[in-house]
Amino acid sequence: MAVAALLLLLYGCVRPQGVQSIPTPLPSPTPAAQRPPLTISNPVLHSGEVGVTYAPVTLSATGGLAPYTWSVSVGALPGGLVLSPDGVISGTPTQNGFFAFSVQVFDTGSQDTAGVPANIPIVPRLTASLVSGCATECTVELGCVSVCGAFGQVSGGAAPLTYTRTSGPLPAGTTLNGLTLNGTFIGLPGRLQFTVQVTDGFGVIATIAPRYNLLPHISFGGGALSCPYNGCGAPSTLPYQGGSGTPGVQVTSWVVTCDYPPCGPQPTPAVSAAGGSVAITVPPSHGGNGYKAVLQLLLTDKSLCGAGTYCSAAGTVNVVVLPG
């Protein structure tokens, strides 16, 4: 038995002459008719912003025989972006606009191609600037509502935009709404400055720092004038306070009474305002009899104190024209 086993082992190790081994058959390649067609998956491309690194997007395809090679077949990518042969769109945009193009994939195994249209919108770089009325400083009168409230403007960038005050106090009585102050300006006169940071959807930051000049509310306390019977030849002056610039002044009432009639009709005084003073030229009496009068004036600041609203101050001037 031992000899038989040994002979059997030797026979298995030594192949008789003339006997050849039969190789294991290899699987045959899938016929082209049975391969899935080459198809590009619908690309999901996001927007971008000039100067901001574009988050890479990898294109994908199915079917055919890999490897694949990608290229732009129609149009062009935004300036600064490239499509690598392995299907990755990346780079940093250098120009804004809406860019429509087509990409294609080449199947090196089966020599097939497939294409699909795509687009990438690129927005301008975010910037923030002061409006012209606040280029030097925003002048506002205390007591005004939202005057000079819109102090800045933005351009470019991608939504959503967020606004954050990063330094300095807001004027008392106001709240920040974007690049606008809402509310009624109160508090003390003086200058203040604050900084607002604008951040867009891509994380780009722009800053703006308006300077406000808060002026006292315009006021006019009136007063009393006494003139000879021939009138006050030179204008008499009474002070006003606050406001900005040169206010307008108008006569709202002129009521004359006479101690020694007949006094006759008296012409309305001439009035003007500038530099903190109201100038009043009182007309002479009729017939030299003198008169007394109550003059009502309204001073109006010519700077807006809100939408279509101006600050104003009323005052009463008691006039005495002595008899001759």
Lay out the secondary structure:
Elements: H1 2-13, E1 39-40, E2 48-49, E3 54-58, E4 61-62, E5 68-75, E6 81-83, E7 88-91, E8 97-107, E9 112-123, E10 127-130, E11 138-141, E12 152-155, E13 162-167, E14 174-177, E15 180-183, E16 190-193, E17 195-199, E18 205-208, E19 211-215, E20 219-220, E21 223-227, E22 236-241, E23 248-257, E24 270-274, E25 277-281, E26 291-304, E27 310-321
Parallel strand pairs: 2-9, 11-19, 21-27
Antiparallel strand pairs: 1-4, 3-7, 5-8, 6-7, 8-9, 10-12, 13-17, 14-15, 16-19, 17-18, 20-22, 22-25, 23-26, 24-25, 26-27
Instruction: Give me the number of helical elements.
Output: 1
CATH architecture of the largest domain: Sandwich
How helix-rich are the residues, as a percent range? under 10%
Structural class: mainly beta
Low-confidence stretches: 1-16
Please tell me what the overall shape is.
rod-shaped
Ends: how far apart?
168 Å
What is the radius of gyration?
44 Å
| Overall average residue pLDDT | 87
Taken as a percent bin, the fraction of beta residues is over 45%
Going across the major beta sheet, what is the strand order?
A: 2-9-8-5
Order of helices and strands: HEEEEEEEEEEEEEEEEEEEEEEEEEEE
Please indicate the count of domains: 3
* Overall number of strands: 27
CATH class of the largest domain: Mainly Beta
CATH topology type of the largest domain: Immunoglobulin-like
Largest sheet: 4 strands, mixed
